[in-house]
Specification:
Keywords: Transferase. InterPro entries: Glyco_trans_2-like, Nucleotide-diphossugar_trans. This is Glycosyltransferase. By secondary structure, the chain is of the alpha/beta class. It has one domain: Spore Coat Polysaccharide Biosynthesis Protein SpsA, Chain A, CATH 3.90.550. It is 21% helix and 31% strand. It is built from five helices and 13 strands. Strands 1, 2, 3, 4, 5, 6, 7, 8, 9, 12 and 13 form an eleven-stranded mixed beta sheet that branches. α1 links the parallel β3 and β4. The longest helix has 12 residues. It is globular.
Length: 215
């Protein structure tokens, strides 16, 4: 049994995730923020649980908070960005859990201006696809405005950058910028935890008028 707590300015409500088969329209965009720090042992289970949600209208932000496990957590995160275009990865210097969550809020609040770093656009050594062994390409961006949380790179799936709502092009300076999708809710998930497949769908049923949902 998984409990979800929804916060707004006036109260808090706890919801128990039950397997309710009633379907709801998937017209609300949910931003999912997952801080990551030395969790290679648990990370795949966590991210698989997000991919397997019955509610699919998601924009998932992974925030690697300066993991020190020889890039194990970072490479797993890149693997999932490469295979699911809903995922974006921010790699930052260590600042603690609150810092990583604040980066997620800032990202979805469109606080950052980015530009494509062509020198770091590369194939992911840890991700494969079904096209004769070819590997998906990760696009890398860096911050060009204030960067208080010391973000090193932002990675996206090449397919995601082909979606109009994800990128903008400035003809004046040949700049390609990655932008967050417009969202209706932000949900936080710890990277050593996981969701039952229906958790987000159940949560959305109770979230009218609420902006931040805490799992």
């Amino acid at each position: 049994m998984h409990n979800t707590t929804i916060y707004n300015n006036t109260n808090q409500t706890t919801i128990t995730c039950n397997n309710n088969t009633a379907q709801i329209p998937q017209n609300k965009k949910v931003g999912v923020v997952i801080p990551i720090y030395n969790v290679a042992q648990y990370l795949r289970e966590c991210l698989d649980s997000v991919i397997n949600q019955t509610y699919k209208n998601l924009s998932v932000l992974l925030v690697n908070d300066g993991s020190t496990d020889n890039n194990e957590s970072l490479n797993i995160a890149k693997e999932y960005v490469a295979k699911d275009s809903r995922f974006i990865l921010i790699d930052k210097e260590n600042g603690g859990l609150s810092s990583a969550r604040n980066v997620g809020i800032a990202w979805f609040s469109e606080k950052y201006k980015t530009t494509l770093d062509s020198s770091h656009t590369k194939q992911n050594d840890n991700a494969t696809n079904d096209n004769e062994g070819e590997m998906p390409i990760l696009c890398s961006y860096y911050i060009i405005n204030e960067n208080p949380y010391n973000i090193n790179r932002i990675y996206s799936n090449n397919n995601a950058t082909q979606q109009e709502q994800e990128t903008t092009y400035n003809a004046n300076n040949n700049n390609i910028a990655l932008q967050p999708q417009k969202i209706d809710y932000i949900i936080f998930l710890d990277s050593d935890d996981f969701w039952k497949p229906y958790c987000i769908e159940e949560c959305i049923k109770h979230s009218d008028g609420v902006e931040i949902v805490w799992f």
